[in-house]
Hints:
- The complex is a heterodimer.
- By secondary structure, chain A is mainly β.
- Chain A contains no helices and eleven strands.
- In chain B, strands 2, 4, 5, 6, 9, 10 and 11 form a seven-stranded mixed sheet that branches. Chain B has a four-stranded antiparallel sheet with strand order 1-3-8-7, with no helix packed on it.
- The radius of gyration of chain B is 13 Å and the shape is globular.
- Classes of the chains: A mainly beta, B mainly beta.
Amino acid sequence: AQSVTQLGSHVSVSEGALVLLRCNYSSSVPPYLFWYVQYPNQGLQLLLKYTSAATLVKGINGFEAEFKKSETSFHLTKPSAHMSDAAEYFCAVRPAGSNYKLTFGKGTLLTVNP
Amino acid sequence: SQTIHQWPATLVQPVGSPLSLECTVEGTSNPNLYWYRQAAGRGLQLLFYSVGIGQISSEVPQNLSASRPQDRQFILSSKKLLLSDSGFYLCAWKPGGGADTQYFGPGTRLTVL
């Protein structure tokens, strides 16, 4: 069965600093991987997704993620944090060939300090 | 363009009362529909999904049920709420077929007292 592990339930960075949110996956077949962002009391918004094309995926709001098969990782990065990036971030996996279900990590809350 | 609606936005209910949450999608046909629950510190838990009218798959046995009476309508229900049913309920949709991305609604905050 597929799963994702997000390392660090809470990450705090200073405005302008690098953002790195970690996600490791477990899947018996090639996975599709997703990062979503959730602002307080709102639904989830797709940031980016990996679907077996380019391993470096660029998303919205300046975020990007790199698929590393050897490390079973899909970490999310942004070179310079903005105050508006403060939110909760979720990594999710869906095995290729499984049409229906995503499995989500437990989320990482990002705090950006002025 | 497609939009997804959920209502109510917030709900406070006593233990033992019934529940009905509604989700509708506009601008698409035959979507896959999903209900998730989000509890503090536990991420998103998939409760139900549906690939068509009247077709419901349950992921977690509990006192909740789901129905899909129309193509773009998905309802989450309970006959008697428990304290543990409190949480943030999210509906999502995905185009049918091979599409991979799920799109989420704004959510319903349910508090059971």
